From TrEMBL:
CDD domains: 11beta-HSD1_like_SDR_c (cd05332). This is Dehydrogenase/reductase SDR family member 7B. It comes from the Eukaryota. Belongs to the short-chain dehydrogenases/reductases (SDR) family. It comes from Callorhinchus milii. Gene3D superfamilies: NAD(P)-binding Rossmann-like Domain. GO terms for molecular function: oxidoreductase activity, acting on the CH-OH group of donors, NAD or NADP as acceptor. Putative oxidoreductase. One of its GO terms (cellular component) is cytoplasm. Keywords: Membrane, NAD, NADP, Oxidoreductase, Transmembrane, Transmembrane helix. The chain crosses the membrane at residues 20-42. The lineage of its organism: Eukaryota, Metazoa, Chordata, Craniata, Vertebrata.
Length: 326
């Protein structure tokens, strides 16, 4: 009886297989797969066409997400200007990029410009140096930033000011300094790496969240104002990424946090985020959230049902405070 059952099942499977192969279903399936493959190929070609030979400036390029963006944009033919504080790390990255070239694709040797975003008054000179590398800037990616961990009561206002200089005043000063050259050419694309925390506020991240909220508002305003000049503005809001952002975060007294948060350790691979950024930029997206389902839902909850959002954040604050005490 058991053997008969098995044989019947096999005959049924063969019959279904013959029905599929003998009808129009198989060609339809193969055609669908072919369309998907062709679509992805065309998207890659479109990305390469948009980025090829364009001058792309990346701040915070020596590590983390900035470094992955540098690798990816270099691979598709961008003329890079890599910016950061550590010239040695930037030059090592240049050697890595040029040494890894396979000769099959057209690539360009990147330029390096060093500066500290805290030095807001120096941004005009640094912008002039950046523009001078290739004579223009096609895409500016404001990526550099710093995070914060600490209670509002225990955070000195000097820390708030420092985080705002790095995450907000520095990038907007650089953007303002480069913007006139884009307006003159009536062409350009400004990309800012914000955060999901620029849309929702999380306890014990006050300085960071405030700087990202300000960033979101500024570049939303900028997008509307420069549309008449043909200049694009893209704001990318990622969730947690597996970088050293939490390790390098500052605490309430300005000291280094030095801890890899669990959420950060379990976050997105920076290579995947870099790919998503390249896709968003090549498709000229205006505002992109790169986060999981729960953070994305939280954004809508904060907007549509704040009376439910606030208690959730208060409960999160109590939970984190309890964990730290233990």
């Amino acid at each position: 009886m058991y053997l008969l059952h098995i044989l019947s099942g096999r005959m049924l499977y063969k019959g279904m297989l013959m029905e599929i192969t003998g009808s129009n279903i198989l060609p339809l399936l193969l055609g669908s797969v072919g369309i998907i493959v062709l679509y992805k190929l065309l998207q890659r070609m479109k990305q390469r066409a948009y980025i090829q030979d364009t001058v792309v400036v990346i701040t915070g390029a020596s590590s983390g997400l900035g470094k992955e963006c540098a690798k990816l944009f270099h691979s598709v033919g961008a003329r890079l200007v890599l910016c950061g504080r550590d010239r040695q790390k930037l030059e090592e990255l240049v050697q890595e990029l040029t040494g890894g070239a396979d000769g099959k694709r057209k690539t360009h040797t990147p330029n390096v410009v060093t500066f500290d975003l805290r030095d807001v008054d120096a941004m005009a000179d640094r912008a002039e140096e950046i523009v001078g590398c290739f004579g223009q800037v096609d895409i500016l990616i404001n990526n550099a930033g710093i995070s914060h961990r600490g209670t509002i009561l225990d955070t000195d206002v000097s820390v708030d000011r420092d985080v705002m200089n790095i995450n907000y005043f520095g990038p907007i000063a650089l953007t303002k300094a480069i913007l006139p050259s884009m307006v003159q050419r009536k062409s350009g694309h400004i990309v800012t790496i914000s955060s999901i925390q620029g849309k929702i506020a999380i306890p014990f991240r006050s300085a960071y969240g405030a700087s990202k909220h300000a960033t979101q508002a500024f570049f939303d305003c900028l997008r509307a104002e420069v549309e008449q000049f043909g200049i694009l503005v893209t704001v990318i809001s990622p969730g947690y990424i597996r970088t050293n952002l939490s390790v390098n975060a500052v605490t309430g007294d300005g000291s280094k946090y030095g801890v890899m948060d669990k959420n950060t350790a379990e976050g997105w691979d920076p290579q995947d985020v870099a790919k998503a950024i390249l896709t968003a930029v090549s498709r000229k997206k205006k505002d992109v959230v790169l986060a999981g389902m729960m953070p994305t839902l939280a954004v809508y909850l904060r907007t549509l049902l704040p009376c439910a959002f606030f208690p959730i954040m208060a409960a999160r604050a109590r939970k984190e405070r309890k964990v730290k005490k233990n």
